[in-house]
């Protein structure tokens, strides 16, 4: 089971905005009151660079950052589910669509078959996107340990 596949919302890209993102966003709403989140997901240079690279890759692939992040997590062989947190119905709807294997149009290039975490042969992300994710991870290893 994977928790926080969006890294407390960082992988949505919303905190990249000038001023640190929307005031109602979780990391902003609870600033100063959520020690674990601030120490783990707080503003560090490698976090901003990694998120920017992942968001750029998602855009290139025709995905939202949310779709790419959740689909990556669910593609891992030992992951059977992901614990998500949505603060509004629109966020939940996007997460539920992203969590469906083989979700079809708008995914960029052809999706590769493989042993996805949530079932044999599940379709999650194109092989070239998975390879690009690995390259970004090598450049920005473990930004939010």
Reported for the largest beta sheet, the result is: 2 strands, parallel
Summarize model confidence as the mean pLDDT.
Answer: 81
Q: What share of residues is helical?
A: 40-55%
How many beta-strand segments?
A: 4
Shape: globular
Strand order of the largest sheet: 1-2
Total number of helices: 6
- Taking pLDDT < 50 over at least 5 consecutive residues as the criterion, the unreliable ranges are 103-116
End-to-end gap:
17 Å
Radius of gyration: 15 Å
Residues in β-strands, percent: 5-15%
Instruction: Spell out the helices and strands N to C.
Output: EHHHHEHEEH
What class do helices, strands and sheet pairing give? mainly alpha
Provide a descriptive summary of the structure in words:
This is NADP-dependent oxidoreductase domain-containing protein. It comes from Volvox africanus. InterPro entries: NAD(P)_OxRdtase_dom_sf, NADP_OxRdtase_dom. This protein is mainly alpha-helical. 42% of the residues lie in helices and 6% in strands. The chain is built from six helices and four strands, in the order βααααβαββα. The strands form two sheets. The protein has a two-stranded parallel ribbon. The chain has a two-stranded antiparallel ribbon with strand order 3-4. β3 and β4 form a beta hairpin. α3 packs antiparallel against α6 and α4 crosses α5. The longest helix has 16 residues. The radius of gyration is 15 Å and the shape is globular. 28% of the residues are buried. About 10% of the residues have low confidence.
Task: Present the secondary structure layout.
Elements: E1 2-3, H1 26-29, H2 35-41, H3 45-60, H4 65-75, E2 82-83, H5 89-98, E3 115-116, E4 119-120, H6 127-139
Parallel strand pairs: 1-2
Antiparallel strand pairs: 3-4
């Amino acid at each position: 089971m994977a928790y926080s596949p969006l890294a407390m919302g960082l992988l949505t890209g919303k905190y990249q905005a000038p001023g640190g993102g929307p005031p109602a966003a979780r990391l902003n709403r609870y600033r100063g009151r959520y020690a674990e989140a601030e120490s783990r997901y707080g503003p560090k240079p490698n976090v901003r660079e990694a998120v920017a690279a992942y968001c750029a890759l998602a855009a290139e692939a025709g995905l939202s950052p949310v779709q790419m992040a959740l689909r990556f997590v669910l593609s891992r062989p030992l992951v059977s589910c992901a614990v998500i947190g949505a603060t509004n119905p629109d966020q939940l709807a996007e997460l539920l669509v992203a969590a469906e294997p083989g979700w079809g149009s708008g995914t960029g290039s052809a999706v590769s078959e493989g042993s996805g975490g949530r079932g044999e042969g599940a379709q999650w992300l194109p092989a070239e996107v998975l390879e690009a994710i690995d390259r970004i991870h090598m450049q920005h290893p473990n930004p939010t340990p």
